[in-house]
Every structure is written in structure tokens, then in C-alpha cells.
């Protein structure tokens, strides 16, 4: 049975309820609630989205609109580690395409895909706001700047090493 088929655990439901109590309007807790679900399951399944919508007293469609608006909320399964490669103009000028091609060759995937072992997902991201250190990428929640092939190889080796 996939994690999507399991209901939200009681402790997570309680954490979301606490967020709701802190807000003037329950929907004000929507992003924080979705981040809690994602922190537990690495992504937000439709079943979990429905449960959160119920807890927030909002429609599934409204909550899905919020979830799909934010590019750091994942509505599809992702790997244990997510590499978000910035594709802003600054990063393009500083070699982003070369890094992306190298990552695709090294990992055996294309942008938007996850490695066969479920270790790493590669995603483009519009801008990380780290233009003065381009090219940049975000790995999980850690920002990396001035990335080159050598630092990229060290990074992917480290990520794969955490799975052993």
C-alpha cells in the first residue's frame, strides 16, 4: 500500500489543527499545513490534500490551486533528495545548461524525472534569487551557488552516499 492510501497520522492532524487555531481564517494555515504533510511524506498526495482541505474547511480545488502554485510543494512523488536547478537568465549565462546536461548524463534522468533508485529528482526552478552566485541550485532546502562540474559531482556523490 502506498503512503497516499494511508490517512494522515493523528499527530500530523493535531499539528495541522494547531496551525488552524493560530489563524484568523483556517485557509491562512494552508501553506504551513501542506509543508507539514510534505515533510512527512516528501510529497502531497490527492488523498492527503483532501484530508487537509477538510481540516482547513476549504474546497479541495482551492487547496490544490495553492499547492500547485508554489514550486516548493510537490504534488507528485519525488526522490529522497530534490535538486532544483535555477534557470534564470543569470544562471543560463553562467553555464546552467552545461550543468543540467552533466546532471542528466550522471544521473541518467531528464529534468522532471527521478533516478531509478528513488534517490534524486531533478527539477528546474524559475529563480532562486542567488544571481550574484550563479549558477545556483537548491538541494532539499540548502542553497548552493557558484556551482561547477566538480562541486556538482561532489554534491551528487554526497547525496547518494546518504542512502547507503
UniProtKB/TrEMBL annotation:
InterPro entries: NuoE-like, NuoE_dom, NuoE_N, Thioredoxin-like_sf. Belongs to the complex I 24 kDa subunit family. GO terms for molecular function: oxidoreductase activity. Keywords: 2Fe-2S, Iron, Iron-sulfur, Metal-binding, Oxidoreductase. It comes from the Bacteria. It comes from Acetobacter fallax. Its cofactor is [2Fe-2S] cluster. It holds the Pfam family 2Fe-2S_thioredx. Its EC number is 1.6.5.11. This is NADH-quinone oxidoreductase subunit NuoE.
Amino acid at each position: 500500500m502506498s503512503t497516499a492510501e494511508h490517512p494522515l497520522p493523528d499527530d500530523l492532524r493535531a499539528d495541522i489543527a494547531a496551525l488552524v487555531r493560530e489563524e484568523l481564517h483556517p485557509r491562512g494555515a494552508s501553506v504551513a499545513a501542506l509543508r507539514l504533510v510534505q515533510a512527512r511524506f516528501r510529497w502531497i498526495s490527492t488523498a492527503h490534500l483532501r484530508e487537509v482541505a477538510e481540516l482547513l474547511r476549504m474546497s479541495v480545488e482551492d487547496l490544490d490551486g495553492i499547492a500547485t502554485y508554489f514550486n516548493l510543494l510537490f504534488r507528485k512523488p519525488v526522490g529522497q533528495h530534490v535538486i532544483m536547478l535555477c534557470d534564470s537568465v543569470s544562471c543560463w549565462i553562467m553555464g546552467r545548461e552545461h550543468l543540467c546536461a552533466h546532471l542528466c548524463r550522471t544521473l541518467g534522468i531528464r529534468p522532471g524525472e527521478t533516478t531509478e533508485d528513488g534517490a534524486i529528482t531533478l527539477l528546474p526552478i524559475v529563480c532562486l534569487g542567488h544571481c550574484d552566485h550563479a549558477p545556483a541550485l537548491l538541494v532539499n532546502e540548502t542553497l548552493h551557488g557558484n556551482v561547477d562540474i566538480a562541486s556538482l559531482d561532489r554534491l551528487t556523490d554526497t547525496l547518494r552516499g546518504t542512502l547507503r
